[in-house]
Specification:
With 79 residues, the chain is mainly α. Helix 2 packs across helix 3. The protein contains 4 helices and no strands. It is globular, with a radius of gyration of 12 Å.
Length: 79
């Protein structure tokens, strides 16, 4: 199990990755998810956590499965 801080960092890194792949700005994603831009920027940096509902809204805004936002490939154990 990873720590809360590692989880927040992973989610933030994944949000930034998917946002950049879609060529969106932080402002655009924040507006689509009905979040403030400063809050969203802090989430991307791993400095803030999210409610489950905010995580859901961000996954919808980015068009990705919610589970993709929390996956850390560095912590997977392969058989």
């Amino acid at each position: 199990m990873i720590s809360k801080k590692e989880f927040e960092y992973t989610v933030g890194r994944n949000l930034a990755k998917y946002r950049k792949e879609k060529k969106l700005t932080q402002m655009q994603v924040a507006e689509m998810a009905e979040l403030s831009v400063p809050f969203y920027a802090s989430v991307e940096l791993g400095n803030k956590g999210l409610s489950a509902y905010s995580l859901y809204k961000l996954s919808v805004a980015l068009g990705v499965d919610i589970n993709c936002l929390s996956v850390s490939y560095t912590h997977l154990t392969l058989p």
